[in-house]
User: Fold these one by one.
Assistant:
Number 1:
Amino acid sequence: GAGVSQSPSNKVTEKGKDVELRCDPISGHTALYWYRQSLGQGLEFLIYFQGNSAPDKSGLPSDRFSAERTGGSVSTLTIQRTQQEDSAVYLCASSALDTQYFGPGTRLTVL
Amino acid sequence: GESVGLHLPTLSVQEGDNSIINCAYSNSASDYFIWYKQESGKGPQFIIDIRSNMDKRQGQRVTVLLNKTVKHLSLQIAATQPGDSAVYFCAVLRGDSWGKLQFGAGTQVVVTP
């Protein structure tokens, strides 16, 4: 079946602009996760949605970052007033149980 | 908190040889461990996982070993192939921090002919 998909694959924006990144999880997966990966680094947890429970936002680096998950499926990560240090690959994953399956990521470049 | 580390940033291995990638974790409450492979420009791909009630698990050409006494995890790749060239991450999950995978920094595996 289809895996996790993310869009856009690449996004270039100017400092101070807002961006929205989209994630379509694997159908039937109740959990959805967002991570950030800076160049040559491991993955940094951002936020986690599980079913209808309140999301775990403990990894969001600032209040400029927010995410929502509509209808228990698609999720959008929004970064307001982007800064150059926000440049990274943003990865989404979904899971039915423990194993998280990742999408290809969105490469965000803030000029 | 949890810290997850990999012992070597880069591993160069000859095609056909076995590869061993190591990972250390700090929290004894960690109970689920995963190895991911990430090729350039792609998201991490699940390879194999192991729970804390096991010390060894085998997949196709891969074996994961878990030593809870010293909090050490390893991934062994048998008969390494050029397609195995990638960055390998270990990830650790604690039962009381559901969903929050802690990733190591990654080991770059380079397979030479």
Number 2:
Amino acid sequence: QKEVEQDPGPLSVPEGAIVSLNCTYSNSAFQYFMWYRQYSRKGPELLMYTYSSGNKEDGRFTAQVDKSSKYISLFIRDSQPSDSATYLCAMSISGNTGKLIFGQGTTLQVKP
Amino acid sequence: DGGITQSPKYLFRKEGQNVTLSCEQNLNHDAMYWYRQDPGQGLRLIYYSQIVNDFQKGDIAEGYSVSREKKESFPLTVTSAQKNPTAFYLCASSRRTTSGGADTQYFGPGTRLTVL
């Protein structure tokens, strides 16, 4: 079993839809949670960074962490064709060297 | 412009050859990382370095080697011992945390290596 599980999709939605992307994990020691966006043939770029449980909002993006369920989510409101990309969740253990464990990524397509 | 550069963008290698991928950063970050990305498998850590002249193996270090002689540079050599080297290679860097937490990793644009 992988430490971090993420449905690879692809996920296809119409423009303007609310998108929900999710990851589950097995290691309860994870404390830091990140979402990266990766366009085709490019390096990942950080979208959201949260520590421990709770919600964090940034524009159209909301990150949610539920440590009791070992489940994290990224919501995208009013999705745009420019949001079409692969979304990677990543997490890290407090006190670690900074090593991140990544999910395999979910490919999202937003159709105009 | 601060950032991470990787070169070359595309690299072709014959079987049995060693190749070196370049990674340079001007963010003044202490920590640097190398990942490998295969379709449907996310990112897997090859090597990482928290400080100059020191580095550690990641989850898939076999067939790879690194050096960290300068803070801004972390080259990766893919040796002939790597059985399946065709992949997308990503370099990242971050500040070294003193509190024990995980700091944000910034990624380069990647190098796509193909073995002929």
Number 3:
Amino acid sequence: EPEVTQTPSHQVTQMGQEVILRCVPISNHLYFYWYRQILGQKVEFLVSFYNNEISEKSEIFDDQFSVERPDGSNFTLKIRSTKLEDSAMYFCASRTAEAFFGQGTRLTVV
Amino acid sequence: DQQVKQNSPSLSVQEGRISILNCDYTNSMFDYFLWYKKYPAEGPTFLISISSIKDKNEDGRFTVFLNKSAKHLSLHIVPSQPGDSAVYFCAGSNYGGATNKLIFGTGTLLAVQP
């Protein structure tokens, strides 16, 4: 069964460093998303991506965040200068009707 | 702005009985609803969905009911099993919209007691 895969599963980084979270969406899906969940809180929308461009972004998705689909299969989320409050689980999703999520990357900023 | 609300943070049921998880929404543009099951430190797992043109969708032990006039949906799990213990999220989406992002509720922790 096709699935969304995310790497790495866990990333520890120092405050101010750049991180890149990677995702391989389901191949015939057209809509791609990044969400995050801070421990104990709800799953929050970050950004949606369609036709090789951002279609919507949330208030959380400020200038330190960017997304790319560099090679037609991978879908990346870059955080340029990480802050302590960026520590969270980050989930990638892709969608036709139903949206399927990856297993997430736990980002810990120290 | 909480467009999707799950007012019960937790629910406990006995094995074999019915679990009913509730969800309310405010956004009239939502035309597609989804339920997910989630374990800690894992991604949400898709369970079942329903289009706004339907009022019921069933898949095995899972049934979702949609009451559009009340802006309310519910997930029924029958019979409940201990393996169903997890956090359940409902999500609304404007599937026909420009981005069709999912908006999640805050989740309900279901505990199924053996």
Number 4:
Amino acid sequence: DQQVKQNSPSLSVQEGRISILNCDYTNSMFDYFLWYKKYPAEGPTFLISISSIKDKNEDGRFTVFLNKSAKHLSLHIVPSQPGDSAVYFCAASYLQMNYGGSQGNLIFGKGTKLSVKP
Amino acid sequence: EPEVTQTPSHQVTQMGQEVILRCVPISNHLYFYWYRQILGQKVEFLVSFYNNEISEKSEIFDDQFSVERPDGSNFTLKIRSTKLEDSAMYFCASSSSMVGTEAFFGQGTRLTVV
């Protein structure tokens, strides 16, 4: 049961152009979405996030768009740089009320390997 | 910059042996997690921990697994009687609050069961 899907295992883009990474989700309870970047032999590094009350969040070269009706989000990187080459994971969470507090565990997609060619 | 640290970076163990993976979360964080990534597959949630008890666990986290925060700084994952299919990268993560803040990940421990 894949609640978070990244259907493109890889993407190749020329330096300076836009990279668009896509993510679909099935669970309408998700209310917070994150993108992580992962280099080989390292842990995922947080990149950018968006709450379900927004449809766009921008941070420098990175912009995340959320389309709740389509249960789709995308990460735009512009301009793309060779150092952006990595695996990008989409992740989603929702607030769960537990005894003593509340918590949101991250559900990850399978990742998209981005290659930015000089 | 504060970071999550994990030791060892690589652990090789024989099938059936017990292993303990160690993590030092960021000091003011309250929520702790273990994830794993089998080679070529997605990052999977194992367990979350808050207030000295498990908050949530996945189907993967069966009786073979346990977590502990023995001394207020370390956060450990114990795997009893390891199986070949336990071979994976194990990531520890911590966050300062509930959903709405990002989790910070450690570099991971590569576990190889032979």
